[in-house]
TrEMBL record:
PANTHER family, alphabetized: CARBOHYDRATE DIACID REGULATOR (PTHR33744), DNA-BINDING TRANSCRIPTIONAL ACTIVATOR ADER (PTHR33744:SF1)
UniProt source species: Nocardioides eburneiflavus
Residues in CdaR GGDEF-like domain copies: 296-415
Domain Purine catabolism PurC-like: 10-131
A Pfam match: PucR
Family: Belongs to the CdaR family.
Entry protein name: PucR family transcriptional regulator
Length: 548
């Protein structure tokens, strides 16, 4: 990626064309860039050259023609320093052809070897190449300054991802993609010559692309890929379409863009933390009820209006958004909050978003003509594809006095909602969807419910503890209640024969002193089981893991 004219381009310059150049070996390396030009007859030229330097010589200082090992060693030295090639003027030492050993050594290393059929001034060749190299370096410097100024301005303006990526698209003149850690495209801006299909099969193609270090070029896809985030906590990658090996300028564009996106992410998180702190204060005040100072204006209402949360003639719905536990890596609450804020903004739905006890509490404010529940459903539909969370909603209220009720109810619904998502579960859990679980959730940790569970199920739990895993009467009772119409299906769910299952049912009746065919007994036991499970799910959520 070194700046410079390639040997192929140099041979097309006027001074070279007049010298009748011919590439006699190492033609494959003619695309190497030339960093600078040296003209010398010293045999120890390797000490003078640096990577990318082009050697001009008449060969007078090289080993004799019959010293094949000496000629090969001379070429080895050029290859070791990374020379861009060797140009030999015929006439002074060699008449019409170079020694075979010299040609063979250059071909073996892929080092371009050029003969000049006409006498020429090396100074003219060096000057022409040098001027072109300097011109390109100046151009690169100007472009680097343009890149620097562009991203500095974006950083000072705290530009968002869209502005940053549009700048990348403009500077790279190619397609730009931001993907997440799971290789799913998050943003895409097509290049000017993009015929479409750049994103075809993206996740599968992207998973096969690995680059060493922070930034690398994948020649197969023609992608310049830059990591977003640290090596330990990468959250995605920036991909720029680059069919040819990228220049230093394009690499700088990619890395400055990655830094700008990281800075925006940091600012966004800081702004989100401050915003949630303010929203928590407002929500707490709203739940406490209107506060008036004599006959003066409502201070809380005024602060809400200034924060962009209208409270006059509105419909309010309280939400709780809770990361699921026990389902792998829990969702990052900061990330969830940012997604909720973006979703509400996209729906033009005013919302207070704050964190309370590892939950997100959200209060939305819908206009009088809007369907508040529908807006909540649409909000959840924008959040759930990105995070494994439970979204619970309270009932809509049309006056500020009901805000505490709808927010509290959302928390109770979240407590009652199942922690493991099932296929039939709604996106938004509401009290009406939870039936018996909802009723028990409203009762919360009422001591009378706990005593009821102990009275109904305590003897079975004591039996199972004493008996170990040999009978598991609670499991048999659960199977019976989940398959009320078929004891055969209940037995099959436990992988038991009908005889073994009937034996366990008989034991349950003995332990409880109750008839399992009595509808009242079954209802009572079913309620006790649901209350027991609900209590354990709540404990799991508080402890961050399954209770024992």
């Amino acid at each position: 990626m070194t700046t410079g004219v390639t040997l192929r381009e140099a041979l097309a310059l006027p001074a070279f064309r007049r010298a009748a150049p011919e590439v006699v070996a190492g033609a494959a390396g003619a695309a190497r860039p030339i960093r600078w030009v040296h003209a010398t007859e010293r045999p120890d030229v390797g000490e003078l050259l640096r990577e990318g330097d082009l050697l001009l010589t008449m060969g007078t200082g090289l080993p004799p023609d019959d010293d094949e090992s000496g000629l090969a060693a001379f070429v080895d030295e050029l290859a070791d320093v990374g020379s861009a090639g060797m140009v030999v003027e015929l006439g002074r030492r060699w008449g019409s052809a170079l020694p075979d050993a010299l040609v063979a050594a250059c071909e073996r290393h892929g080092l371009p070897l050029v003969v000049l059929g006409r006498e020429t001034r090396f100074a003219a060749l060096a000057q022409e190449i040098g001027e072109r190299v300097v011109d390109q370096q100046v151009t690169e410097l100007r472009e680097a300054q343009r890149v620097h100024e562009t991203f500095t301005e974006l950083s000072f303006g705290q530009a968002g991802p869209v502005e940053i990526l549009r700048a990348v698209q403009r500077l790279s003149d190619g397609p730009v993609v931001v993907e997440n850690a799971q290789h799913r495209p998050l943003d895409y801006f097509a290049g000017p010559d993009d015929p479409g299909g750049f994103l075809d099969g993206w996740p599968a193609r992207s998973r096969r692309v690995e680059v060493a270090g922070r930034t690398g070029w994948d020649a197969t896809n023609g992608w310049l890929v830059t990591r977003l985030g640290t090596a330990d906590q990468a959250w995605g990658r920036l991909v720029i379409g680059s069919p040819e090996a990228p220049s230093q300028r394009l690499v700088a564009v990619a890395e400055r863009a990655a830094a700008a996106l990281a800075l925006h992410r940091l600012h966004d998180r800081d702004r989100g933390t401050l915003m949630r702190r303010t929203h928590l204060e407002l929500l707490t005040a709203l739940m406490a009820g209107p506060v008036r100072d004599g006959a003066g204006p409502d201070e809380v209402g005024r602060r809400c209006e200034l924060a962009g949360f209208p409270v006059r003639r509105r419909t309010f719905v309280g939400l709780v958004v809770r990361p699921r536990v026990g389902t792998g890596t829990p969702a990052d609450l900061d990330e969830v909050a940012a997604t909720v804020v973006r979703a509400a903004h996209g729906l033009r739905l005013p919302a207070l978003v704050c964190e309370v006890d590892r939950d997100l509490r959200v209060l939305v404010s819908a206009g009088p003509a809007a369907d508040a529940d529908d807006l909540v459903d649409r909000l959840a539909a924008r959040v759930l594809p990105h995070h494994d969370v439970v979204v619970a909603a309270g009932r809509a209220v049309t006056d500020r006095g009901g805000i505490a009720r709808t927010v509290t109810e959302a928390g109770q619904v979240a407590d009652a909602a199942p922690q493991v998502r099932r296929g039939q579960d709604p996106d938004v859990h509401r009290l009406a969807d939870l039936h018996l679980r909802g009723l028990l959730a409203l009762l919360g940790e009422d001591e009378r419910v706990r005593l009821f569970v102990e009275r109904e199920l305590g003897p079975l739990e004591a039996h199972d503890r004493a008996d170990g895993s040999r009978t598991e009467l609670l499991a048999a009772l659960r199977a019976l209640l989940l398959h009320p119409a078929s004891k055969t299906e209940a037995a099959a769910s436990l992988h038991l024969s009908r005889a073994a299952f009937y034996d366990r049912l008989a034991r349950i009746e003995t332990v409880l002193g109750a008839d399992l065919d009595d509808p009242d007994v079954r209802v009572s036991l079913h309620v006790a089981l649901v209350a027991r499970d609900l209590g354990r799910e709540t404990a799991d959520g508080l402890s961050g893991g399954p209770s024992k």
